[in-house]
C-alpha cells in the first residue's frame, strides 16, 4: 500500500512543481469563456504562445482583453449592483491564473467595483 501512496505523492509533487493543475485550470477557463469554433486549434495556439514566451523570456501572454474582463465581472454581478463580493473577486483571480489558492489577499470590507477588478487584473498581468 505504501508504494501506491509514494507514487501518488510523487505525482502530486510533480504536478505542483510544474504548476500543471493551474495551467489546465487556466486553459479550461479561457476555453469555456471564449468558446472558440475550433477549441483544439485554439489550445494549441495558446500553448505555442506560452512556449515562445518562455523561450524568449518575454512576459506571459494574457489571453483576455478588457471587454472579456468586463464580461466576466458582469457574469459575477448577477444582481447588477456594480459590485462583486471579495470571495467572487478572489475566485476570479484564481480562475484567471492570477492568484494562487494559498495566496492571502486582504479583504478591506468593501465590495469590488469593475474599475477595481480591472485595475487588479491589469496589475497582476504586468507582474507575470
UniProtKB/TrEMBL annotation:
Transmembrane segments: none
Entry GO MF terms: calcium ion binding
Stretches assigned to the EF-hand domain: 64-99
InterPro entries: DD_EFCAB10 (IPR049760), EF-hand-dom_pair (IPR011992), EF_EFCAB10_C (IPR056587), EF_hand_dom (IPR002048), EFC10 (IPR039879)
Pfam families, sorted: EF_EFCAB10_C
The protein's name: EF-hand calcium binding domain 10
Gene of this entry: EFCAB10
Amino acid at each position: 500500500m505504501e508504494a501506491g501512496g509514494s507514487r501518488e505523492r510523487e505525482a502530486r509533487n510533480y504536478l505542483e512543481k510544474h504548476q500543471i493543475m493551474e495551467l489546465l485550470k487556466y486553459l479550461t477557463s479561457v476555453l469555456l469563456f471564449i468558446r472558440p469554433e475550433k477549441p483544439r486549434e485554439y489550445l494549441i495556439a495558446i500553448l505555442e504562445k506560452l512556449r515562445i514566451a518562455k523561450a524568449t523570456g518575454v512576459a506571459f501572454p494574457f489571453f483576455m482583453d478588457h471587454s472579456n474582463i468586463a464580461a466576466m465581472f458582469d457574469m459575477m454581478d448577477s444582481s447588477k449592483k456594480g459590485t462583486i463580493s471579495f470571495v467572487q473577486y478572489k475566485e476570479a483571480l484564481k480562475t484567471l491564473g492570477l492568484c494562487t489558492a494559498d495566496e492571502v489577499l486582504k479583504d478591506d470590507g468593501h465590495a469590488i467595483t469593475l474599475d477595481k477588478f480591472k485595475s487588479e487584473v491589469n496589475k497582476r498581468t504586468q507582474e507575470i
